[in-house]
Each structure stands twice: as structure tokens, then as C-alpha cells.
Amino acid sequence: MKKLLALLLLFSCTAPQKDEEGFLAVNGTSLYYHAMGKGEPVIIIHGGPVLDQSYMIDHFKELSKDHRLIFFDQRASGKSTAEVDTATMTIKNLVEDIEQLRQKLGLDQVHVFGHSWGGMLAAMYAVEYPLKVKSLVLCDAMPPSFRLWSQEEEEIAKRTSSYDSLLEEKIKAKEGFKNQEVMWVDSLMKVAFKSQFVDTTKLALLKIKLPLDYFKRSKIFEHVGPELFAYDITTQLEKIIAPTLIINGDQEPATGISAPVYKNGIANSHLVVIANSGHFPFIEQPNQFNLTVQSFWKSVK
After folding, report:
1. Which among 125, 78, 117, 84 has a CA at the least distance from the CA of 101?
2. CA contacts within 13 A on the Cβ side of 136
3. What crossing angle do the helices spanning 214-221 and 182-194 adopt, rounded to 10°?
4. How far apart are the first and last CA of the chain?
5. ∠ Cα 249 197 136 (to 5°)
6. 252-288, pLDDT tens digit by residue?
7. Of 109, 30, 15, 111, which Cα lies nearest the Cα of 70?
8. What per-residue confidence (pLDDT) applies to 18?
9. pLDDT at residue 1 above 50?
10. CA quadruple 236, 117, 24, 17: dihedral positive or negative?
11. Average pLDDT over residues 288-295
12. Helix axis angle, 91-104 relative to 117-128, nearest 10°?
């Protein structure tokens, strides 16, 4: 009987946590979240704007073996409600949503991971709530200022072939695109992201699930626009006290433009560059990406 009890206790301690998903009333809106894996909690902040967590989940399963990954669709994005007051569409609220999500889930200190646009939001969160961040991962993060973002966009434009530029224009001219059919947005994104892959055959692994009301949501996000043309958190990066991993593909424009600015601004940070990858190193070089992030998380006490 004692042996059976011991086995049951062992099983209860080692059984993996189940995936969990649902909606949370957060900061005056409703956010969809999906948690998977076991271990210390990591809040994952997706790129965009107006994308959602869907393009990340399949590529983060290895990381969920040792950590509880909490994905969420940002305000007015993905499966989160599109019924929002446009006056609430501010960068401040997008950051505050992360904090209230943490509180609603009953979490104390958390690891924070942000990719692309989500990387910039993650940095802003770590600036505003430094004591709540156990570690920070900035993966090909959007720059800490509009000036640097403009430089990166110019570099991306240079890398886009004339053929792909023409293809983008042809897609925008399609009746389906003009009629706001989502399938044409997906086609446009695949062409736009092509220049951000080293191995373009792996572009097929980038799975973006767009909601049918994508155009409506995109219109809502336009209210964040004026802020984006003036943002600059460069001088605030010194407020980030958490150990920080800056991880970029070697062919990502940010690697030579904004990654050094993040590294110099955040005292306890280091930069890792993944060879033969662009904006999505977790797709192009998953083994090295996973090993780098796992090793970093293990090093955080």
C-alpha cells in the first residue's frame, strides 16, 4: 500500500501540466491566452502589429518541456476581442495589458520573451515593471526608437527584389484584396517576409492564421500609429535590471542597427547571433535557437 501511494505521489509530481486556454478580462478588454508546458512561467509576446501567437506555437514546443509558456493575442489581435474603444489603443495600454495578464494568472516574477514588435513591447514592460521580470529575451526585436526602426525598414526595402516588389503591387491590385479578402493578405505577407529568410524554402513553415476581420482589426491598430512615429525608449533601457538575452539572426538588419543599442543600454545583457538565419531564427535554425534560449533560462537564478 505504501509503495502504491509513493508511486501515485511520484506520478502527481511528474505529470505534465495540461495545455490551458481561454479568455481573460484584462485592462478593459478581453484577451485570448494559451498556456503550455511545465516549469517557471514565461510570458510570450508575439510580433505584429495585428498578428497573433499562431506563428510561434509550433516552433516553441521544445522550450515548453522545461517552462510554462504563456502565449496571448494582444489587444484587438487574433482571437482577442476586436470590440475595443479606439481611444484605448495606445502603447501604454499594450504594455499594461501584459502586467494585468500576469496579475490575473496569479503569477509573481516571470520570464518575458518578445519577438519583433513584441520584443519592443517586452523591453517597454521590463522598463515599467523591472521587479516583475526574472529574465528578458529580445528576439529580433523591433528597435527602441522610431529613428532606428526607419533605418531597418530602409535596409529591408533594399533587400527586397524588384520582382517581389512588383508581386506585392499586383497582389494589392487584386479585386480580392480590395474587397478585404484575408487570403490575399496572407499572400502579401509571404512575399513581404521572403527577404527576411536566408533559406526561403523554410518560408512555408511560417504559419500565420489571420482572422476573417483582419482589415477591421488593422484599422483599429491605426490609432497606435501617431505614437509609433515618435517613440524612443533608448535612454530608458537602463531601467531594465533583469538578465537579458538579445538573440538575432545574422542576416537580420536589426543585428547591426538596433541590437547593439539594446546591448549597450541594458546593463546585464548579452547578444547571441544565430548564423544562417534572418528574422525568424526559431524557424530557420531551431536547434541552435532552442539550445541558446534554454541555456540562458537555466543560467538565471
Report:
1. 125
2. 34
3. 60
4. 39
5. 35
6. 999 999 999 999 999 999 999 999 999 999 999 999 9
7. 111
8. 86
9. no
10. negative
11. 98
12. 70
In order of 80, 123, 242, the CA distances from 112 in angstroms are 20, 9, 10
Cα gap 96→129, rounded to integer Å: 10
CA-based max dimension of the chain = 74
Return the closest-CA partner of residue 70 out of 28, 26, 29: 26
Cell 532606428 found at: 148
Per-residue pLDDT reduced to its tens digit, 92-121: 999 999 999 999 999 999 999 999 999 999
3-state SS class at 44: strand
269 DSSP β-pair partners: 244
**125-to-69, 190, 192, 242 alpha-carbon distances in Å:** 17, 30, 28, 11
Q: What b/e string do you get for 212-244 counting C-beta neighbours within 10 Å, with b at 16 or more?
A: eebbebbebbebbeeeeeebebbeebebbebbb
DSSP letter, residue 38 = S
The pLDDT assigned to 16 comes to 57
Question: Do residues 217 and 51 touch, judged by C-beta distance below 8 A?
Answer: no
Q: What would the grid cell of residue 225 be? A: 500609429
**What would the pLDDT profile of 6-61 be if each residue is shown by its tens digit?**
433 443 444 557 899 999 999 999 999 999 999 999 999 999 999 999 999 999 99
Calpha distance 44→60 (Å, rounded) = 10
Q: Residue range 55-84: average pLDDT?
A: 97
d(CA 51, CA 49): 6
The CA radius of gyration of the chain, in Å to the nearest whole number, is 20
Q: Is this model's pTM higher than 0.90 or not?
A: yes
In whole angstroms, what separates CA 256 from the centre of its chain? Answer: 20
Helix (H) or strand (E) holding 146: helix 146-159
> Locate cell 487570403: which residue?
183
